[in-house]
Amino acid sequence: MSNQPETTIHDIARALKISASTVSRALNDNPIISQATRNKIKKAAEEMGYRPNVVAANFRTKRTNTIGVIVPLINRHFFSSVISGIEEIAYEAGFAVTISQSKDTFEKESKIAHTLFSNRVDGLILSIAMGTQSYDHLKLFSKRQIPLVFFDRVVDEIDAHKIVADDFGGGYKATRHLIEQGRKRIAMIGGPQNLKIYQYRQAGYLKALEEAGLQADESLILHNSLTREDGTQAIRKLMDAANIPDAVFCANDTTALSAIIYLQEKGINVPQDIAIVGFSNEPFSEVVTPSISTVKQPGFEMGKKAAVLLIRQINQKEAPENFETITMPTELIIRNSSRVI
Amino acid sequence: MSNQPETTIHDIARALKISASTVSRALNDNPIISQATRNKIKKAAEEMGYRPNVVAANFRTKRTNTIGVIVPLINRHFFSSVISGIEEIAYEAGFAVTISQSKDTFEKESKIAHTLFSNRVDGLILSIAMGTQSYDHLKLFSKRQIPLVFFDRVVDEIDAHKIVADDFGGGYKATRHLIEQGRKRIAMIGGPQNLKIYQYRQAGYLKALEEAGLQADESLILHNSLTREDGTQAIRKLMDAANIPDAVFCANDTTALSAIIYLQEKGINVPQDIAIVGFSNEPFSEVVTPSISTVKQPGFEMGKKAAVLLIRQINQKEAPENFETITMPTELIIRNSSRVI
DNA sequence: TCGATGCATGCAATCGATTGCACGCTTCGG
DNA sequence: CCGAAGCGTGCAATCGATTGCATGCATCGA
Q1: Based on the domain organization, do B142 and B242 belong to the same domain?
Q2: Residue B17 belongs to what domain range?
Q3: Residues B16-75: pLDDT tens digits?
Q4: Which end of chain B, N or C, is less packed with Cβ atoms under 10 Å?
C-alpha cells in the first residue's frame, strides 16, 4: 500500500532502451511508429501499470477534454435531465463534464465561470441565473474563442448556439387547450419577465387569446418567481378579485400545484370550476390529484443537442459563420386538471 | 475578437521588470513578498487580464483541486440532492466537481473510474452501480492513496469512509408506526437483496414486527426492482392472495405510489382499509392524494458530509488510521397514506 | 567601521507529455 | 557504385507555474 511512484513514459523508455518520444507516439497509435515497436511498448506499458498523466498532456496540448456546465440548480428535474443528456454525449465523445450550480445568483455564476475558464475547459454549456444581467464573465469565453452553448435561459447579447424549448408554442398550446374547453376568463401566473422563456410562454398565451377573439385582461396576469409560496399568493389574489377566472395557465408546475392545493382547500373544484395547466412536466405533475395538465420540455434531448453542438464547435476550432438557435418542440400533456370529462 | 495570446506570469514579470517567481508568489499572497510589491503585481495582473493557467499549476503541484463523483443516475432526486450537497461544500473549499453517471453498469463505472484517475482527481465520491461486483477499478485509487468516500451503496471489501442513511432505523420506524396505528398484517414490498440498503430496510421491518410480537409472514414479503410496474404487480399479488394485508411498507416511494393508485382503482380506501408507507421522500410523495407517509433520507446532508470527509482526507494527506461508517439519521414523515384521523 | 542578521527578490530546475526537425539506416534505380 | 528516397527513431525544446536555494541589499549592534 506504499505510495508507489508513478510510471511515466520515460520509465517505459528506459526499460525498453528507446526514447520517450517513441513511447509517446506508440501509445497514441501514431502510424509513424512500426507496428512491432508499438506492440512492444503497449505491452510494457500494461505490465508496468502505466497510467497516462492526463494533466501533463492537457498542459502541453492546451486541451482538457472537459466540458463545463453551469445550471441554476442541479437538484431540479429539468436541469438534471439536461445534465444527463449532456453527460451521455460527452462521455461517448471522450469528454469529461464538470458541473456547477449557480444557485440562481449572479455572483456564484460569475465566479464559477472564471474558475472554469482558468481550468481551461474546452467549452461551456449553461443556463443563466435569474439574477444575471451583466455578461462579462461570459465574454471571457468568446474573447478566447472558447465555444459556448446556451440552453433554456439564453442571452441575446452573446453570439452562440442556443437550445431552447418552444416556450411560445407551449404557452400557445396550453392556452388554446383551455379555450377549447370553453374557458373564457383565463388567468396567467407568469415568471420573471427578464427571462425570455417566461416572456415567450406569456406571448404564446396572449397569441392564443387573441386568435380566439378573447380580450387579454391585465388584472388576470401576474408575475412572480414561481415558488410554491408565490403560487399560493398569486392564486389567492386572483380569487379575491371581483371577477374570478375560470382557468389558470401557470408558467411552471410548482405554481400550478399551489393553485390546485389552494383551490381544493377552498372547496373549489378543479377542473370543473377552474381549470389549471402547468409547465415543465415535473414528475409530481402526473401523480397528484387531479393530475396536472402541463407542457413537456424535452430536457434530456436538449442536453444531448447542446453537447453535440458544443463538441462539434470544439473539434472544428473555427468559430462557425453564424450561430443557430434551435427550438426543441414542446408537447402539451392533457391530464385531469384541465379536462372536464 | 482575435485570438489573443494568454497573459502569463512571465508577461507580467517582463512588464514590471521583475522575476516570474516573484509574480507567482505575489499572486499566491505569499507573505515573503513585500506588501508593496504584491499590490503592484496584482494591479498589473488585473490590468493585463491575467488568468492563471490552472492546468499548468496542477501539473506542477500534482493537485487538481477536483473531486470526482460517480452516481448511478444523475437524474434521480436522491442522487441529485447528494450531488448538490457535495457541490456546495466542494465549492466553498475551492474544489471543482466532475460528475459522471454509471447508468448502473459495471463497465461504465469502471471506465469512468479509470478516466477520473488519469485525470488525477484529488478524491472520489461514489455510490456503486447495481451490477458492480469487482473492485479493481477502485483499488487503483487506494493503491495510489487517493481518498475515496462511498455513500448510500457502499462496498465492504474496500476500506474507506462510508456515508449511509439509517435504513434499518427507517424500516423499523415505518413499521412500528404502522403497528401503532393498530395494523396487524403488515406486508413489505422490498428491493433487490444484493444491495445492503434494501437488506437493512427489511431487517428494520422484521425487527419491529418481532418486538411487537407479530409473526413475520413470508407470503407478505415480496422482492423486486421497485419500479412503477413492479409495484403494481406486487400489490396485485398481495391483494389476490387469500389473506390480504391491512398495511404495506414499501422500500421506496415509487412502489408506494403504485400501491396507492392500484388500491384506489379497486375502490379500496387508503389508509382506512390499507395503510401505506414508502421510503425516500421523493418530491411527489408530499403532493399525491393521499400524501404518502415516507422515510426521509437526508440526501443533501449526506452529500455535504461525504464532501467534508473527503476534503479533510485530501488535505491531511495521510490515510486515516481507521475509516468510519457514518450513518445519517432517517426521519419518518407521517402523512395521510397511513394516518387514520 | 565591519560583520551579522534578516528581509525581499531572482535563478534555475522541475513536473510529464508532445512534436518539429534532424538523423541514420536500408533499399533501389540509374 | 553512388545518390536519392523513405521509413523509423531520437533529440531537444516547449507548455506555465512553482519552489529550494542563492544572492543582494539594508539595517543595526558592537
Answers
A1: no
A2: 9-52
A3: 999 999 999 999 998 888 888 899 999 999 999 899 999 999 999 999 999 999 999 888
A4: C
